[in-house]
Fold these 2 entries.
Entry 1:
Amino acid sequence: MSEPKKFEAVLDSDSRKAPVRVAFVTRRTSPHVKAKDDALVMTWPETLFRVAVAIEVLAIALVLLALFWDAPLEGLADPMQTPNPAKAPWYFLGLQELLHYFPPVIAGVLIPTMVIVALIVIPYFNINVEAQGIWLRDKQRRMRIVGVVVGVLVALFLAMRVWVILIPTVIVAAFLFLAAASLPDSPGRFRRWLVSKPLSFWIMTWFLIQASVLTVVGTFFRGPGWAWVWPWRA
Amino acid sequence: MPSAIEAYINDLRETRVWRSVFRSGTGATNLRRALAVQQNIFLHLFSVKMRRAALNFSMTWYLGTLSLATFLILVGTGIPLMLYYHPSVPQAYADMKDLQFVVSAGVFLRNLHRWSAHAMVLLVFAHMFKVFYRGAYRKPREFNWVIGVVLLIVTLFLSYTGYLLPWDQLAYWAITVGSNIMSAVPVLGQKMRFLMLGGNSVNANALLRFYVLHCVILPLAAILFIGIHFWRIRKDGGLYTGEGKPHE
């Protein structure tokens, strides 16, 4: 294998004096090459027309909203006069509701950081990429682990009397165990759908429902002193 | 005479000046349609053809497109609003009153900006959940998902910094509550809060910082990451149509 080299590398960046042809033949192909021969349409006009319509519909909806519903404006900012309750923007009210139950380091720092880190790492775990129904393999062991985790969470929230977290957790857990009691060939379509759902689905759905409930409670159900109020009685 | 108008427009599009601007030329051939996309700086991130399946409404609900739409509306309304706004205390609040009672269509401008901002936060969240439930974060789109998380955070900060600018009671106390959360960070909390507010409480310095963040730094960050996000869609093989799903 020690034949003399038949070529020489030329270190010259003037491409007219030292013309170079490099052909890379790699084993990995780009995603585009791998694509199947799906039905294709021309981006112009098919895609761009649809995009334009979508943007126009949204713009019209927002213009109508802006014409008939005024943005709030209260009195001049006064550091001496704290409103009761003082509320953050709506998308942080879930966090503010958490602060009502947990110390600031947990509710204000640890939980948001964990949520962001969890979101970032989703695509890098094979369990999320394969996305196999959680109960389809290794059911007994998974049952024990999930049972312990759900049990600990429910006991914790029950001990702290955090109903707005406890109730959604119990509901999601109920569906999770209904999925465990279902089979891929169950007669009901809904149960077949449940059983096909992977772990990531259950965690994300729990997070989505939990975040929505906390945000709605923080926005509409909290009055002076962060006490519970019924919005229709206020 | 629609045919005469059509002929006139076609003649116009064949003139030397027009062709110097739009090189793709006229005619309804697929070559021209491809060139119309490929030769246009604003469209060139699109591939000239797309999978038909990617256009189905159920695939995306157009949530990414609509998130971009709200961003464009926010830039379009935000720049005129800047013409009527001074980031100083208490002039900022007086400017709100001027928008309400003096500036033509000032109320409409502010309403549209505010509702679009709320819509953008909602749509970006919805876009994220839709992408997740479809499993579109799979290889080779992993990193574009991460860029998306960055854009979510940028969106939240854009909305949060804008929230202070009217300098009314609602704005002042919402930012006070929000910035108090930050001071709970161990060790660095107080310093981070001081850096963000330019002081130990929400004051005129905080207003100026939020204004610069809201009107310069965060929009530039958003444009940069939106650019990367769109470029990656193209480089990762176009919109996700369900490939690489082993169990469905």
Entry 2:
Amino acid sequence: MRPEQGTLVSRAQAMAALLELLTDQPVIICNGFPSREAHKIADRPTHFYMIGSMGNAPAIALGVALAKPNKQVVTFDGDGNVLMGMGTLATVGALKPKNFIHVVFDNEVYGTTGNQPTISNVVPLEKVAKAAGYVNVERVLDRDDLIYEFKDMLKKDGPSMLLIKVNEFAEDAGRVVHDPPDITRRFMKAIEG
Amino acid sequence: MRRLSQACAGDFWGERSVIESDVFVQAMQDMGVNFFTGVPDSILGGIIAELMTRRLYVPAVREDEAVGMAAGAYMAGRTPAVLMQNSGLGTSLNALISLNLIYQQPCVLIVSWRGRGGKDAPEHLVMGEVMPQLLDTVKIPHRTLTENTAIEDFRWVAATFMARRIPVALFITKGVVKGLHP
């Protein structure tokens, strides 16, 4: 148990607070519990829920951001996911899409598979992003700060990373009900234009 | 601007001559491809140089990342292609299976066929031998580009990947498309 564990918000609480600040922005959500929780909190057609291809959420978001430079693109990611696709931090840092916001819910474990530890307790992922070339990076530990910083990032040119330290609690959320091809079609239609 | 049909029919490009990189890129653009990403290979060097000249190429650091970027670009209205050495097929297999195939996201894979016929560096020999069967197993259609069937090959790619909303692979063997070094 980490010392600050008791004071941290859960990923679902953090996600709910962020989703309240979003309207029609495309949101690419990594596989595992994050997609299930986002689907439970607010099922919007602008959500792309991943069920596989772990580590690939920011790459997909980057493709959307490059193709739609006038739309702000958000990705909800996890620490295990970022570690698996860490090269993408470099690609984002090098290409510097202004419309790219990378949110990392960092609970220091692989939650979906039984809370095995990741290594994000000793590897500060937001510092890796900063070194790779992200323009704005913030690490936050509580609800007020995450709302403040996310609002700020929505106003700024990116790429930005908001790393939110969350506890290990996972919401009782079922699998995403939509079929993957429907998720693709619905998302495409929602972000058209 | 030289096009494939002219190149095939024209005086300057007779039977079995190498496909120029600009002709290759133009053929891809003519079929509507307008987002190119990937990881380089020497066989693809000429194509990538031409794409960079046309400011069409987004470099990726891993092939599965390129596949992810292509998927995002597709959903945002683009028609994507991913360039890679066949070793990158191994790296991107999970993304191709659990993203493209599951979510019905099309993409042209332009894959250099290293290790074909057992003539290459040791690291290319296993993938060079099993690549076609590997793609058959995961149900990704593929075809090998040749100088004499180029128009047909491109037509097949164009007709397959968007209609079926799946990735299709076009294999490029050494010497078929002009590289950076003769």
